[in-house]
Design a protein that fits this description.
five-stranded antiparallel sheet, five-stranded parallel sheet, Beta-Lactamase, alpha/beta, PAS-like_dom_sf, Heat Shock Protein 90, 23 helices
């Protein structure tokens, strides 16, 4: 098995810069940073050198401008699902479509691409290369986790096959029955035969059907494990014996939702026991007392075994979810940092193009997209850390209307979006940011289901349930529906659609987390996600959310007028191990009129505090190697007890253990938020 991360000495960068000295310069800079590199002399050699062990590729724009990119595109599309090779493009005209129309074509072909405009500073090049290397390492870690999950599934299936055990699952709401091929063979069916719950009842000996139903009722009522033996009648008329064992699963409200278990053919054992019973009747009378004791003891290897199996199943599930959470949280945290640099630079850039209406519109669109991305990363971080949602009354009609432009841009020109919105609906109780992300995700899924184009219909309605309906308790619900005219899903695919990492999209084009996260959001809101689909005709997704009795909350942005701000010129020490974020934050602070000293580690920051004397404010990232922002804050307060400190973090809450109260700045942040938090922390320090 490969190592979980690639050390710098093993990282290989592939360079394709046939003209000028670009290849020599890039190779030298990478060598100084401890990153090995090799050259692809022409496009054919470059493509031939691409493999999973390449950390990232550095290419000049002119080398690709007139080249046949089809072999390169084919290699990129053939990458495994965990792989998304980073490309760094050296260009004379930047990466924007207005200045460089060729950039759009390269972005479409290469996918994971960063543009560096020449002439470039060595620090900028190494920073982008380091970011690409870190991203590639996270891809290798994702590969290991996926391989580990696959290996666990294979071992489980091997154990079932070795024990000749058939797996099955019964939905107690719909009585839909899922069975393995081995399970169907135990009832005399072939692997290709359909086997519904009605088929199961018909396969049980008529004298044993009521016993089986009674055992199911007992398990549902008491929660005890389901264990029974009964006779089965095969299609050829022969009688066999089956042993069935299962455990009951409940939802968060305690309602029984399904039985999951195994089955085994015990015909030989049962018939042998019957013959032995006849031979041992006299002996059993003499040892009845002893036999009773043995039965009691036996009931106790079995209770312990069942408890152990249950504990092991819970442990495996916990480990699986922990792995998923760690992977999701790590990726989301790093992406959150990248958005920080994007938002900061876009805000500063907007100040310099106020007279250019087209540039302002484009920058505003990019800002809106980046903020949506920031909301998405917050949802992923909440998913990884199981944080609570911020639930308020939300006007669904207003939410859909405000998202109309974003949805139209997201689906492209080949898709038509139709909406059916009532004039008035009572607000629902939800987290508006997460609801926007859920709607956008459903619309994008609908777009992907219609590669030839079509119509997406979004509608709102209100429904009242008078009795329990599946996962939904009685009450009023707002229903948000998204319907497409795409290829649809069959029943088997529909059942798996909300499972984590399940995707019908081809490798590299879907994470399999979209519907899973929407389903999880719906459950947190005491609602549900319902999917219905017909192959060849399309799919409808319904998001059911409880109605609120309060007035809908209209989000407001708190703005502090410039004339009311009392913060003067400050001497600020800014600390962040990510050069892009540090550069963006420094630019925002300088634009606010402050003097800034920049540090990229806790040790470097402490050295500045000791050598450069007094600072008015310390702003530090929390997640840094060797010394966290919390540890830096402790050390800084030891040197300067009254030093105001502001800690930036993408997580909702800072981990405990700092030992004193510090102000928190949520990532990604805007220049206005930065200014407001500085003013707030300084006012707190003065009081």
């Amino acid at each position: 098995m490969r190592s979980k991360a690639i050390p710098n000495r093993e990282a290989i960068a592939l360079i394709h810069a046939p003209l000028g000295r670009d290849a020599q310069i890039a190779g030298s800079l990478l060598s100084e940073a401890g990153i090995l590199s090799k050259n692809g002399e022409d496009i054919s050699a470059f493509v031939a050198s691409l493999n999973e062990d390449i950390a990232f590729a550095v290419v000049t724009e002119e080398a690709l401008r007139s080249a046949d990119l089809r072999p390169l595109s084919a290699w990129i599309k053939s990458q495994p699902s965990w792989s998304d090779l980073p490309f760094i493009i050296l260009t004379h005209r930047g990466g924007g479509p207005e200045r460089n129309p060729c950039a759009a074509r390269l972005s479409e072909v290469l996918g994971n691409v960063s543009f560096i405009e020449r002439p470039f500073h060595a620090t900028t090049f190494i920073s982008v290369a380091s970011s690409a290397l870190r991203g590639r390492r996270r891809q290798y870690e994702a590969r290991l986790r996926i391989e580990a999950l696959d290996e666990g599934e294979r071992r489980l299936q091997t154990a079932l096959d070795a024990g000749r055990l058939g797996a099955w699952e019964l939905d107690l709401m719909t009585y839909a029955l899922i069975t393995s091929a081995t399970c169907r063979r135990i009832f005399g069916r072939s692997a290709a035969d359909a086997f519904t719950y009605d088929d199961l009842l018909a396969a049980i000996h008529p004298d044993d059907v009521e016993k089986m139903k009674a055992a199911v009722r007992t398990t549902i009522e008491t929660g005890s494990d389901y264990a029974i033996e009964y006779r089965t009648v095969w299609p050829d008329g022969s009688v066999h014996w089956a042993e069935i064992r299962a455990q009951l699963y409940r939802d968060r409200s305690g309602r029984a939702i399904k039985l999951v278990g195994v089955s085994a053919d015990v015909t030989v054992r049962v018939f042998s026991e019957e013959q032995q019973r006849r031979l041992n009747e006299l002996l059993e009378e003499r040892v009845a007392e002893r036999t009773e004791e043995l039965h009691k003891a036996h009931a106790i290897v079995m209770a312990e075994v069942a408890q152990r199996e249950h504990a092991e199943a819970q442990l495996r599930q916990a480990q699986k979810m922990e792995a998923i959470g760690q992977l999701t949280g790590g990726v989301a945290h790093d992406f959150n940092n990248l958005l920080m640099a994007v938002l900061g630079n876009l805000e500063l850039l907007r100040k310099h193009v106020d007279g250019d209406a087209k540039a302002v519109r484009l920058i505003d669109g990019a800002l809106q997209g980046a903020r949506r991305g920031a909301s998405l990363t917050q949802r992923l971080l909440a998913f990884a850390r199981r944080q609570d949602l911020r639930v308020d009354p939300v006007d669904l009609g207003r939410l859909v209307g405000e998202m109309a432009d974003l949805m139209k841009r997201s689906v492209g020109t080949g898709i038509v979006i139709e909406t059916c919105l009532p004039e008035r609906l009572d607000p629902v109780l939800a987290d508006s940011n997460q609801l926007e992300l859920a709607l956008l995700n459903l619309v994008v899924n609908a777009r992907d289901a219609m590669p030839e184009g079509g119509t997406i219909r979004i509608s709102l309605a209100e429904t009242t349930l008078v009795k329990q309906d599946g996962e939904l308790a009685p009450g009023r619900y707002g229903v948000l529906s998204v319907t497409d005219e795409g290829h649809g899903m069959d029943e088997d695919t529909l059942r798996k659609a909300i499972e984590p990492f399940f995707s019908t999209k081809e490798l590299g084009k879907g994470t399999g987390l979209g519907l899973s996260m929407i389903h999880g959001l719906a459950l947190q809101l005491q609602g549900t996600l319902r999917l219905s689909s017909v192959p060849g005709k399309g799919t409808t997704a319904e998001l059911w959310i409880p109605v609120s009795n309060d007035v809908a909350v209209v989000p407001e942005v708190a703005v502090v007028p410039e004339k009311d701000r009392e913060v003067g010129l400050l001497r600020v020490l800014l600390v962040d191990d990510d050069f892009l974020i540090a550069m963006s934050s420094v630019d925002m602070l300088v634009d606010l009129g402050h003097e800034v000293v920049e540090a990229h580690s806790g040790k470097e920051a402490l050295a500045n505090l000791k050598e450069n004397g007094r600072f008015d404010l310390l702003i530090t990232d929390y997640s840094m190697p060797e010394m966290t922002g919390g540890e830096l804050a402790k050390a800084a307060r030891t040197l300067f007890p009254d030093l105001p400190i502001l800690i930036a973090s993408g997580y909702a809450d800072l981990p405990p253990g700092i030992g004193f109260d510090v102000a928190k700045l949520g990532k990604p942040y805007t220049q206005q938020q930065l200014a407001m938090e500085i003013e707030r922390v300084l006012r707190g320090a003065q009081t």
